[in-house]
Amino acid sequence: MANDNKLQNIIAHCKEYGFVFQSSEIYDGLSAVYDYGQYGSELKKNIRDYWWKSMTQMQDNIVGIDAAIFMHPTVWKASGHVDNFSDPMIDNKDSQKRYRVDHLIEGFAETLDKEKGDALLQQMDQLLAANDFAGIKTLITDNKINCGVSGTCNWTDVRQFNLMFSTEIGSVAEEANVIYLRPETAQGIFVNFLNVQKTGRMKIPFGIAQTGKAFRNEIVARGFIFRMREFEQMEMQFFVKPGTQKEWYEHWKETRMKWHLSLGISPDKYKFHDHVKLAHYADMACDIEYDFPMGFKEVEGIHSRTDFDLKQHQQFSGKKLTYFDTDINQHYVPYVVETSIGLDRTVMMILSEAYEEQDLTTDDKPDSRVVLRFPPMLAPIKLAVLPLTKKDGLPEIARDLITACKPHFKCFYEEKDSIGKRYRRQDAIGTPFCITIDHQTKEDQTVTIRYRDSMTQERISLASVKDMILDKIKMF
Ligand code: GAP
């Protein structure tokens, strides 16, 4: 299956089976905003839970918080987002279409042979790192990079556009009432650094984690849930002694890569990409890239943010944000190493990895299935219970099994259609285990378990089902 097709097929499958819908679809949708349906929201929640447990419960020195989306407007002045959180854009004068210059050039590079494409991207990286926007425009025009809509090369100068959404708080629309929807969750952690450190009696090195919505007015929003205007982040700020940031940066690169591999994804589907142009707050930064259907793209960022944010908040708020290190009897502003992963992008990664179209044709019968091979711990539904018929007391046994299992994991009951059809529907939503209750169950208290990936079946005792599934879906 060509990768382009794979992405389109995943999008169609997500809609057909209740994973992801376009926002406000009955009004023709809202660009780059998506809603999660009945299975998508379960999948997303399970991924969030796995991250949260890995980053808080399984760590000795990381605690979680839940900060508000709205923050004092000065936060964004201090963090540098008001002045620096922008992307270089260029407009085509004929079509009026606006492009992020890196996306425009990257798109063009993909049409070239590898050597030429790589050379062009290298030139682009150097010019962007030097903030040489005139040079970027020359690169675009020299390479005759056209607008996809007008087909012309009639470009404006390259300009910076801020990505933050603003709104007003209170009833009077004055300058002072303008606030922003947070473009990252991290600042909610920075401004609570001392609250958590003091009330939690935390000793450096320690971390604060949180998950939550972030908003960016992405100009070029594409790639399904890869780049959205409203999305969710899972971030952790790790506060360290100045001078130790390099070793913690390496530690978190390794730890986060292990987390990705623990999802059962092969190492050759990942690579690190070191940033050439560092964000205004970073002294080292890299992305973990995953091989999405549209190629290797960032799923997570690991950033050594120095003491930039805490120092800025100290200066703008006039409040001291230092830590007293009893080991060395000194006050200092800690350095921070951040891990920042997009939840929606992780959902897309898990979907891309899990989606498989299988040809099951045998000599005498054409057959196929679409299966989502989710890791069982992340699957929206863990167990489907299917009575063979609607009578003879089989539904009652099935309902009893669900009653026993549902406090522990998400179950699904279905009695319509042939067993084969019911199995295929569960494959399509990624249910790892199906239990069939048949007439033999009444005689010997055994059931058939059918495994999604191998499609094999075996007979097990009804009484063992709950513990067996619990064992197979455990996260740690
Ligand atoms: N606090 C640091 C920070 O926000 P970032 O690299 O801008 O760093 C971190 O974002 C992660 O958030 C990205 O790796 C990506 O997974 C996710 N992300 C960023 N913008 C996104 C968007 N428009 N839609 C979906 N996810 C996005």
Low-confidence stretches at least 5 residues in length (pLDDT < 50)? none
The whole-angstrom Rg is 26 Å
Percent of sequence in beta strands: 25-35%
Bound small molecules, by name, code or SMILES, are: glycyl-adenosine-5'-phosphate
**Number of domains as seen in the coordinates:** 3
Strand order in the sheet with the most strands: 3-9-10-16-13-12-11
What fold name goes in the CATH topology slot of the largest domain?
BirA Bifunctional Protein, domain 2
Description:
With 476 residues, the protein is of the alpha+beta class. The protein has three domains: 4-72 and 168-351, BirA Bifunctional Protein, domain 2 (2-Layer Sandwich); 86-162, Herpes Virus-1 (2-Layer Sandwich); 381-473, Anticodon-binding domain (Rossmann fold), CATH 3.40.50.800. It has 16 helices and 23 strands. The protein has helices at 3-16, 38-57, 73-78, 81-84, 101-109, 114-129, 133-142, 186-190, 193-199, 245-261, 308-317, 343-354, 394-405, 419-429, 439-444, 465-473, and strands at residues 20-22, 34-36, 62-64, 86-91, 98-100, 159-162, 166-168, 178-180, 206-215, 230-240, 270-274, 284-292, 295-306, 323-325, 330-332, 335-342, 355-359, 368-372, 383-387, 411-413, 433-437, 446-451, 457-461. Strands 3-9-10-16-13-12-11 form a seven-stranded mixed beta sheet. The chain has a five-stranded mixed beta sheet with strand order 20-19-21-22-23, with helices on both faces. A hairpin with an 8-residue loop joins strand 17 and strand 18 (368-372). The longest helix has 20 residues, at 38-57. Glycyl-adenosine-5'-phosphate (GAP) binds at residues 184, 186, 216, 218, 227-228, 231, 233, 235, 298-301, 338, 340-342, 344-345. Glycyl-adenosine-5'-phosphate is lined by residues 184, 186, 216, 218, 227-228, 231, 233, 235, 298-301, 338, 340-342, 344-345.
